[in-house]
């Protein structure tokens, strides 16, 4: 028997949920765009210019001229010269600033992972400065075209012109700050720190939600029915509450066999449903209303991308063309903290309805997968460097202090450490370097946390 909604009330509610989901996804897209703050600030400056023209029409400059004459421009030629100079100067600032941003993005793409570019673009501080430039330009142009308008009872909007001068001085001050900020943002330390901060915040939020959930019940979806994808693209987020409501409405349970961030292909199955629906096409269409697709890998949306970006930056730093082990070590330090946080998060994410029934099982990379995907590339490209090997051993040693509370993850740490020592045994030939590595391994063994001792490197001669 179909559980499809039949009343107009349910249809309206479904439409509202669809609209809210779309609005939420569009909002996330807009606020991560480089044009969000510039557009918003420009509109505010345009509104201010119209307000000033309205006040000028009511004699604001005339009243201020009697009290503060130095603030009012009374000569038409001087006013036009000032506004023309402001317009030209601000346009030059805008062009130069955007040129600097493009150079920064090009350098970041060449020297670091290209996937860190969206994070640089969405830097709110730089967007607001560009918005100030554009807003000042819009304000000045609106005032300029209204000089000597028949609408006014005075010859010139003198105070509005004075405000344009003030805004220009503020633009010059922020231009100096912009140069400082852009030179700081291109430094790999700042990039790694921003990725770490975003990933850490997302992980802490996931951990907080995970602790509020009930332990997931064991289930076997092997006999469930597959649902095929309606579109091709990178599936990045879901609108959780409406999705749970949709499953509750149809009385079904979903089990996604692809994690968020996966590339879905139209016509290929990606999710299982616990029973066959008579109107599966309608359910599938409504399901995709609560799924968002975009190309960018944003750590603020999916913490797994943060691990990926930091790892790729470390691997890029270890490439022969860059050869910057210091950056790789910094990336390893940030990965240590993030992996320690990931230990606290369960490997299953289950969404429940208001009655406490599991409705959505979301697949996410396990701790073992995150650990391997984060450390394996660094280990592969840095296995000939004693500094990198010691850095990875130090990472694993720090995680052993945390793993006591999560004993089921000890085996993963042992396997990863054993692989690291296997590569070091084959690649590192210097006796002194081997001694340093063995000393670090002995310190790990002395913690007596792992189920068995790690092997030492063989000493040549």
Automatic annotation (TrEMBL):
Membrane-spanning parts: 26-55, 81-105, 129-147, 159-179
InterPro entries in the record: DUF2254_membrane
A Pfam family: DUF2254
Highest taxon listed in the record's lineage: Bacteria
Keywords: Membrane, Transmembrane, Transmembrane helix
Transmembrane helix found in the keyword field: yes
Name of the protein: Uncharacterized membrane protein
Upper lineage: Bacteria, Pseudomonadati, Bacteroidota, Cytophagia, Cytophagales
């Amino acid at each position: 028997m179909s559980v499809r909604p039949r009343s107009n009330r349910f249809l309206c509610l479904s439409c509202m949920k669809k609209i809210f989901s779309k609005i939420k996804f569009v909002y996330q897209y807009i606020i991560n765009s480089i044009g969000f703050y510039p557009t918003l600030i420009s509109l505010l400056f345009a509104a201010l210019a119209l307000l000033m023209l309205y006040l000028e029409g009511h004699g604001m400059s005339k009243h201020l001229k009697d009290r503060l004459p130095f603030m009012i421009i009374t000569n038409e030629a001087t006013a036009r010269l000032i506004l023309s100079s402001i317009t030209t100067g601000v346009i030059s600032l805008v062009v130069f600033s955007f040129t600097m941003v493009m150079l920064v993005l090009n350098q970041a793409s060449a020297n670091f992972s290209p996937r860190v570019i969206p994070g640089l673009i969405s830097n709110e501080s730089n967007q607001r400065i560009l918005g100030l430039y554009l807003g000042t330009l819009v304000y000045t142009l609106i005032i300029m075209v209204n000089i000597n308008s028949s609408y006014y009872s005075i010859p010139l909007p003198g105070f509005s012109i004075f405000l344009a001068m003030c805004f220009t001085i503020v633009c010059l001050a922020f231009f100096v700050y912009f140069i400082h900020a852009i030179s700081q943002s291109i430094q790999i330390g700042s990039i790694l720190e921003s990725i770490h901060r975003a990933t850490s915040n997302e992980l802490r939020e996931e951990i907080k939600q995970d602790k509020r959930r009930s332990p997931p019940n064991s289930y076997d979806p092997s006999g469930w029915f597959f649902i095929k994808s309606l579109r091709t693209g990178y599936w990045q987020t879901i609108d959780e509450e409406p999705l749970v409501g949709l499953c509750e409405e149809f009385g079904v349970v979903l089990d996604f066999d692809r994690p968020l961030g996966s590339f879905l292909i139209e016509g290929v199955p990606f999710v299982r449903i616990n029973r066959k629906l008579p109107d599966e096409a309608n359910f599938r269409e409504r399901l995709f209303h609560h799924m968002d697709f975009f190309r960018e890998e944003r750590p603020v949306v999916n913490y797994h991308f943060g691990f990926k970006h930091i790892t790729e930056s470390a691997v890029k730093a270890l490439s022969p063309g860059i050869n910057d082990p210091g950056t790789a070590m910094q990336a390893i330090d940030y990965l240590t903290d993030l992996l320690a946080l990931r230990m606290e998060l369960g490997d299953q994410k289950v969404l429940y309805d208001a009655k406490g029934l599991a409705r959505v099982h979301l697949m996410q990379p396990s701790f073992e997968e995150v650990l391997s995907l984060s450390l394996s590339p660094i280990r592969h490209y840095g296995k000939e460097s004693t500094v990198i090997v010691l850095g990875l051993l130090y990472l694993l040693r720090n995680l052993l202090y945390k793993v006591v509370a999560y004993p089921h993850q000890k085996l993963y740490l042992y396997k990863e450490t054993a692989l690291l020592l296997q590569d070091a045994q084959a690649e590192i030939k210097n006796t002194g370097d081997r001694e340093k590595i063995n000393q670090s391994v002995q310190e790990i063994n002395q913690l007596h946390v792992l189920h068995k001792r790690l092997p030492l490197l063989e000493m040549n001669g």
